[in-house]
Amino acid sequence: MLNEKMYALGNKRSIIREIFEYCKSRAGEIGPDKVFDFSIGNPSVEPPKEISEAIIDLVNNESSVLLHGYTSAQGDLGVRQAIAKEINEKFGAGVNENSIYMTCGAAASLTISLRALLNEGDECVAFAPFFTEYRVFVENAGGKLVVSTPMEKTFQVDVRDLESKISEKTRAIIMNSPNNPSGVVYSEETIKAVCKVLEKKQREYGNPIYLIADEPYRELVFDDIKVPYLMNYYDNTIVCYSYSKALSLPGERIGYIAVSPRAQDSQKVYLAVCGAGRSLGYVCAPSLFQQVIKRTIGAKVDVNIYKENRDILYNALTEYGYECVQPDGAFYLFVRALEDDAYKFFEKAKQKEILVVPCDDFGVSGYVRIAYCVDKQRIVNALPAFKSLAEEYKK
Ligand code: PLP
Question: What is the pTM of this model?
């Protein structure tokens, strides 16, 4: 007998992967330049040059044990110290090497953190729209995902709705800002209001409620927007960070978990993270890339390339009559489908070789996500198709 839940997950890909695979096969049929693939969040901007320089230097000058051997289960000490120093310099968060657990990207950071926090039947709240895999990760940790409905049009958090969704079973909430798929950055005002609700509910139920900050897009913000550092607003915070998007390294699988030193029983939480990492087999994140991260602290990708894409797409689509959420960060445009059923809209867009992602699995119906982390020319080439699609709906 198999584990039927795992079979079901493997047998049915996520909607994003499903469309991405279709794009690849369609590109084989009609040519890649004819398919307007906006399905997946694969960074299109080059990693900073410091990354390849660090790899070459490390490979030429460091021992193979350092680069290819096992590290401590929670990650190399020097790497964790360097990351803690960076966090403290940037945010004054007071973390240290024993607050940091190196992981294989944000997906691992989240699965480990949820495993560390949840017991069977516990609830975890996520704000819609949310990254589709949250449901899989929460359920795999034995929990139940509870969805908090956002404010209409702005897609900021509806704090009253959040309050109504927290129960004595709530053990954690996940906040993802800049958000996938809306591109929204939660304002400081929103965060303060969320933290106030959490403090109140913790007191009411006499249990800690952990705030999981899912932060793969922290660095990808436009127009000098600031992303508040949640640990500085709420003590029971666990940051799930990843270099996948920040440094355009999604295939290298590298990130970390940072447990706030001010969390209730902080060291116990950290040890539960270590235990969850162990039980899931997520120990010793890739050694070479741990060292690369240590060498390249502070390196950045050119966010202006994404900003230019955003501006071209947002300006053109709103001119054609699409209703779009103005994204302040990440590399997604959240667009209202031109009919109620986002899947039907997706099918019509597909006829024009435009591949976007219907967002029902992200917890919001009637919207699609356009991942604009693509070459600018693809966006420019796709605009006539977007225009003619809008015109068809007007007829
Ligand atoms: N969280 C969010 C919101 C994401 O969008 C993604 C990936 O797209 C992840 C987590 C997983 O990131 P990683 O590739 O670092 O595992």
Answer: 0.96
